[in-house]
Amino acid sequence: MKKNIFVKNLSNKNPTKDITLDDRKNKLKISTAKDNITIDIGDGIVFGKKNIPIIAGPNGVENKKLMIDVAKQIKKNNLKIIRGHAYKPLTFPYRSKTYKETQNIGMDWMDEIKKNFKLKVVTEVTELRYLSRICKTADILQIGSRNMQNLELLRIVSKTNFPIILKRHFGASLRDFLGAAEHILVEGNKKLILCERGVSIPHTHRDTSRFALDIQAIPALKEICKYPIISDPSHASFWAPWVPSLTLASIAAGCDGLIIEMHPNPKKSAVDPLQPLNFNQFKKLMNNSKKVAKSINRKII
Ligand code: PEP
Ligand code: MN
Question: CB–CB of 172/16 below 8 Å?
Answer without folding.
Answer: no
